[in-house]
Design goal:
The complex is a heterodimer of chains A (about 850) and B (about 260).
Chain A: H1 2-10, H2 13-51, E1 57-61, E2 78-79, H3 80-87, E3 92-98, E4 100-102, E5 105-107, E6 121-125, E7 133-138, E8 146-150, H4 151-157, E9 164-168, E10 174-185, E11 196-200, H5 202-210, E12 215-216, E13 218-223, H6 229-240, E14 244-248, H7 249-306, H8 311-351, H9 364-390, H10 409-430, H11 437-469, H12 475-484, H13 488-526, E15 531-535, H14 547-555, E16 559-572, E17 575-582, H15 585-591, E18 596-599, E19 608-612, H16 613-618, E20 626-630, E21 636-645, E22 654-656, H17 658-664, E23 672-677, H18 683-693, E24 700-704, H19 705-748, H20 750-758, H21 763-799, H22 801-804, H23 813-830, H24 832-839, H25 843-847
Helix pairs in contact in A: 1-8, 2-7, 2-8, 2-9, 2-19, 7-8, 7-9, 7-13, 7-19, 8-9, 10-11, 11-12, 11-13, 11-21, 12-21, 13-19, 13-21, 19-21, 19-24, 21-23, 21-24
Chain B: E1 11-22, E2 29-40, E3 44-48, H1 55-62, E4 70-75, E5 78-79, H2 85-94, E6 96-99, H3 111-121, H4 128-138, H5 153-166, E7 171-175, H6 183-200, E8 204-207, H7 211-214, E9 219-224, E10 227-233, H8 237-249
Parallel strand pairs in B: 3-8, 3-9, 6-7, 7-8
Antiparallel strand pairs in B: 1-2, 1-4, 4-5, 9-10
The chains are: A alpha+beta (about 850), B alpha/beta (about 260).
Chain lengths: ~850, ~260
């Protein structure tokens, strides 16, 4: 039996190659994403281990607001006397007060901020060389207008020793500095992860980065000989008390590594999502392949049965094929994924020049996942056909033709039940079911896809006939159309694979397009400004407009209304949140077209706030209620609710007084400025005037309303592009299915083809006939997928109306038409190999039977 | 391009010193040993011979389905030897009809569509009067809307005959047309073939190994080991059987090539 199984495997090389490719593709994504995350994770671990190698213990003030990790982002300061306190402790060899935090933005020669992929633009005080930082050229800064920069920055921005460079510091001041020194890190590296660092004199760093004199934000502590890092940490902790974070170098490196890994986790989810789609489509392809193999082998299996093979043996022989395909596919998939993951890691780290990729690892998770998924999926997909194979009656060996198709009733009933249940789950999930929501929505979507796939055979009859009639103007076209309707199950399962990919992508596209359009519409309708001033955020430090610049914009004679707002993370009643603040609430109300629901909203005093109606309802806030707000800087404040704005899509959230914002926000300067121009004034002229004012601020720029709408839709467009990549993967796999099915059809219909050629069918007509079948199947799957996808997308958008603020469904017509046309091309391409086979068919061989 | 079928004399197809060799060296098999034969127009010719005698190969080469190693094939005045696939396809559309043992019909098409298939592939219309005549002769008027799976084997084969006839080809090649039928259905099909020769002057060439089927023909050609070894005019089943027995007794390299 084993020998027979292996022989039959070898005899079906092409088809097995196709299904193995399906397994490879699916496994590849899973293993690739796991390897990528593993490699990146270890790369960053190494990196942070390097960075903190020479750090024994580091001290920083505890931040009021929990930011992403502590360390460099933490702007909480402490007086220089704290350093002295630490220095006097037993076991301390040396304590160095440091200024080291993000937010020193170097301005390039093109008057733009020099950005880097790490998003870190550190500003620090120069504390002399140590084991970690070395001066490669030049000297230490000795005056407030002198700086030392890292060599990575000097290369990226093309600044040399002795050049002048502008830096915008954390206090928003733009000043010109002379570069007096260039640093390198241990191991001769120009940067650690591509970040930039500007070292000032200590006084200048304290003033410009911390906005204080004689204060620091970290202390680097070296342990005396014989004192362990942990002992030192505990000593310092005991001395300084709760207001400080004291960590060893090891802890810091672990903490930083964890933070990065959390980010990588989301990245991993996206890749695994791709893998899941590839798997889902792959299941169809494998199922299809095995059904075909079993159908083809019916006679052979029956013969085996007639010779005494038990049902179990037949079942096992088919499953054994599946295991072999699964193993081979998993091995290749894992290896290809390993390669791709490693390549991805190099690419990713390459963006942050300077970092070294950790060696290629074989993460256990990737190996296990690859084989479990590859073999498991293949086995599951092969199970149904295998059971079918075991039911082949011995007598089938004597029959001339394969057994006719069984009625579709059972399949249709099952499909209907699953679809109905899935729709139920989806509706329930979307209506909100607490913790179960996500599971219900995902389950619902998956169920609908499977249910519709089961219904595909019954739908295929009318739909394929309808679609096919488009191609029936030629005799070969008509023959092809009829052929595609011949075996509804096979057509359906092939089209089902196409359907799933198209449905998922169409659903996502529908959601994004709806959001994008709704966003654009809302902004166009509600925003009463002609110009918007804003910048692209390239690091943790937001791009802002300086108060001076804002003053000059407000002073422009053509400017009718100027509204500026700023935003920051806070804690409200102990929970993380964010608050907004308008420089002039009246202008904000006017520009955002806000209406008062209760109380007053156009004026705020210190200690007051307003909120939109929906947020008020969600939090059960009434006029006169108070909230406790903890700001990034300064103490906690209790604010009183004085006004509630009517619902608006663009002006939501908690709004506090500008004076409170100035004292409490980490970056109190305006993030965005809205300008409404005087009636009759030219928007273009005003835009030019505003941009003139902003000339020295490379971070921000004025945009017209249209440009603003477009740029706010940009992120959706990027998401849509990523979704198209997903489509490509899904389509690539389903095309394999189409090729597979058609090859089988051609082989099965060899005699028919021979007869047709004998009675005068040309090669070109043969090609047309096979291609028509291929195109009909692909287009059928696409149409079905478009319908299901639009349905799912529309359902989700409608259901999330309350969450998103808009519920209008916009269909991605352009994309849908593109998918439809693409499916025709793809169908044509998929038909190529089978067509070639059909065309090359030897007429004589096809019809002879001796 | 409808070829007029005449009842007069003339040659519908001929082979001139045709050799067909498969393989080379040790594995070489000579299927046809310089066969020359002329098939008269308006006649029903049967080709007989034991398995491996080359009878099917001869028919396939005559029909343009298979190439020859040496020699020439003519259908009417057209020389087939060296024709391209496209030209051969054209020839099959206009001058040749086929009836196979099985897999004659497309299961997706109705009987009528199957009958008209060669014409519609070629983008031609059937002559309505001729079509009616053919349908009436095969006795399928009430079955035209049926799919092949709804027809008996004999009916299917009659549909195949009608399909071959409807384009009025120069010559119809039938390859064991009754091989898969019971004797009664077989007799029906054979009578029908004979009638279409008698009544419409259709030329038919049939390969068979059944002496009874051969007895319907006007002439029987016997092949053995790739050579034509004998022939019989106005055969009876007994006469054919006798000849076949002789063939078995006399070894293959009998040098009697029949023109």
């Amino acid at each position: 039996m084993l020998r027979a199984t292996l022989k039959s495997l070898l005899a079906r090389k092409l088809r097995l190659t196709l299904s193995t490719v399906a397994v490879v593709l699916s496994v590849m994504f899973v293993s690739g994403s796991l390897v990528l995350t593993d490699t990146l994770g270890r790369t960053f671990d190494n990196l942070f281990a390097n960075i903190y190698t020479y750090t024994d213990v580091e001290v920083s003030a505890k931040s009021q607001i929990q930011q992403q990790g502590n360390g460099p982002g933490n702007s909480s300061t402490f007086p220089a006397s704290t350093v002295d306190r630490v220095a006097k402790l037993d076991g301390v060899a040396k304590a160095t007060g440091q200024v080291f935090l993000n937010g020193a933005m170097p301005v390039g020669r093109n008057n733009k901020i020099v950005i880097n992929q790490s998003g870190q633009q550190f500003g620090a005080n120069w504390v002399g060389e140590d084991q970690f930082v070395k001066l490669a050229e030049g000297r230490a800064p000795s005056a407030d207008d002198e700086v030392v920069i890292n060599k990575g920055l000097s290369k990226a921005a093309n600044y040399k020793l002795g050049d002048s460079m502008d830096v915008i510091t954390r206090d928003r001041e733009r000043s010109t500095y002379k570069i007096v020194g260039l640093t390198q890190y241990t191991g001769g590296r120009d940067s650690m992860v591509g970040e930039s660092t500007v070292f000032f004199t200590t006084a200048k760093a304290q003033k410009s980065m911390l906005g204080a004199t004689d204060e620091f934000n970290t202390i680097d502590v070296k342990a005396a000989p014989g004192v362990s890092d942990e002992q030192l940490r505990d000593t310092i902790k005991a001395e300084l008390g709760d207001g400080f974070v004291v960590q060893t170098g090891k802890e810091l490196s672990e903490e930083s590594g964890e933070a990065i890994k959390n980010v990588l986790k989301y990245f991993n989810y996206v890749l695994l999502g791709f893998g899941a789609v590839a798997l889902l489509v792959g299941v169809f392809l494998i199922l299809n392949t095995f059904s075909i193999i079993v159908a083809q082998r019916t006679k052979e299996l029956a013969l085996l049965r007639a010779m005494g093979a038990a049902r179990g043996q037949v079942l096992r022989s088919v499953l054994l094929e599946a295991v072999i395909i699964g193993v081979v596919g998993s091995v290749f998939g894992f290896l290809v994924g390993l390669g791709l993951g490693a390549a991805g890691a190099f690419l990713f780290v390459g963006l942050a020049d300077g970092a070294q990729v950790a060696g290629l690892g074989f993460p256990v998770s990737a190996i296990v996942a690859s084989f479990v998924i590859g073999i498991g999926v293949t086995m599951i997909a092969a199970l149904m056909p295998a059971i079918k194979a075991s039911r082949v009656a011995p007598i089938a060996a004597m029959h001339e033709s394969a057994t006719p198709d069984r009625p579709l009733t059972r399949l249709t009933v099952t499909g209907t039940v699953i679809t109905a249940a899935a729709i139920g789950a989806l509706v329930w999930g979307l209506a909100g079911a607490g913790d179960a929501t996500l599971a219900l929505v995902f389950g619902g979507v998956l169920g609908i896809l499977i249910g519709v796939a089961l219904l595909t055979p019954i739908v295929s009859r009318p739909l394929v006939a309808g679609l096919g009639s488009l191609f029936s103007w030629t005799v070969p076209g008509k023959l092809g159309r009829r052929n595609s309707a011949r075996n509804p199950r096979r057509t359906a399962i092939t089209a089902g694979a196409v359907m799933i990919g198209i449905a998922i992508v169409t659903a996502i596209s529908t959601i994004f397009t709806s959001l994008s359009t709704a966003l654009g519409d809302t902004v166009a309708k509600d925003l009463q400004a002609d110009l918007v001033v804003l910048g692209q955020q390239t690091s943790e430090i937001p791009p802002v407009v300086t108060p001076q610049e804002l003053q000059r914009i407000t002073a422009l004679p053509e400017a009718k209304t100027v509204a500026a707002f700023t935003v920051d993370a806070v804690q409200i009643d102990g929970k993380p949140d964010y608050v907004l603040s308008y420089l002039d609430p009246a202008a904000g109300v006017s520009v955002l077209k806000l209406k008062a629901d209760q109380g007053r909203i156009d004026r705020l005093e210190q200690g007051e706030f307003t909120v939109d109606k929906k947020t008020a309802e969600n939090r059960k806030l009434k006029l006169g209620d108070t909230i406790d707000v903890t700001f990034a800087k300064g103490p906690q404040k209790t604010l009183k609710l004085v006004g509630i704005t009517a619902e608006s899509a663009i002006g939501g959230g908690i709004v506090i007084d500008y004076a409170d914002a100035q004292t409490g926000f980490a970056f109190p300067q305006p993030w965005q400025v809205y300008v409404a121009v005087q009636d009759g004034a030219s928007v273009t002229t005003v835009k030019a005037a505003v941009n003139d004012i902003l000339e020295d601020n490379p971070q921000v720029q004025a945009y017209t309303k249209d440009e603003y709408v477009k740029s706010s839709q940009q992120s959706f467009n990027i998401a849509l592009v990523i979704v198209q990549v997903l489509l490509l993967i899904a389509l690539a796999i389903s095309v394999l299915g189409v090729i597979n099915t058609l090859l089988l059809s051609v082989i099965e219909r060899t005699r028919e083809l021979g007869m047709l050629r004998a009675v005068g069918l040309r090669r070109s007509q043969t090609w047309l006939m096979v291609t028509t079948e291929s195109v009909v199947i692909t287009v059928f799957g696409t149409v079905l997928g478009l319908a299901v996808g639009v349905g799912l997308g529309a359902a989700i958008v409608t259901a999330l109306k309350d969450v998103l603020g808009f519920g209008a469904v916009t269909l991605p017509w352009g994309l849908m038409i593109a998918y439809f046309l693409a499916s025709m091309v793809v169908g044509g391409v998929a038909g190529l190999i089978p067509s070639i086979r059909a065309v090359r068919l030897n007429v004589l061989g096809a019809i002879s039977y001796e | 391009m409808t070829t007029t079928v005449t009842t007069g004399d003339g040659i519908a197809a001929r082979a001139v010193d045709v050799w067909k060799v498969y393989g080379s060296g040790e594995a070489q098999v000579i299927a046809l040993h310089g066969v020359s034969v002329e098939l008269e127009r308006g006649h029903f010719t049967a080709i007989m011979g034991p398995s491996g005698s080359g009878k099917s190969t001869l028919m396939h080469t005559l029909a343009g389905l298979d190439s020859v190693t040496r020699g020439e094939i003519f259908v009417g005045d057209t020389r087939l030897t060296g024709m391209s696939d496209g030209a051969l396809t054209n020839l099959r559309r206009t001058k040749v009809g086929f009836i196979f043992q099985q897999f004659n019909l497309l299961p997706t098409l109705t009987a009528e569509e199957n009958i008209l298939l060669p014409l519609s592939i070629a983008g031609r219309k059937a002559d309505p009067a001729w079509y009616d005549t053919v349908i009436k002769t095969v006795g399928l008027s009430d079955r035209l809307g049926h799919r092949p799976s709804q027809l008996s084997g004999g009916q299917q084969q009659r549909v195949a005959c009608a399909r071959a006839l409807v384009s009025r080809p120069e010559v119809i090649f039938a390859d064991e047309p009754t091989g898969n039928l019971d004797s009664r259905s077989g007799a029906e099909v054979l009578s029908f073939l004979r009638n279409s020769v008698r009544e419409f002057g259709q030329t038919i060439v049939m390969v068979t190994h059944d002496p009874n089927a051969a007895s319907y023909a006007d002439r029987v050609i016997f092949l053995a080991d790739g050579r034509i070894v004998d022939e019989l005019r106005e055969p009876t089943a007994e006469a054919v059987l006798d000849k076949l027995k002789n063939l078995d007794k006399v070894p293959g390299d009998l040098a009697g090539e029949v023109a």
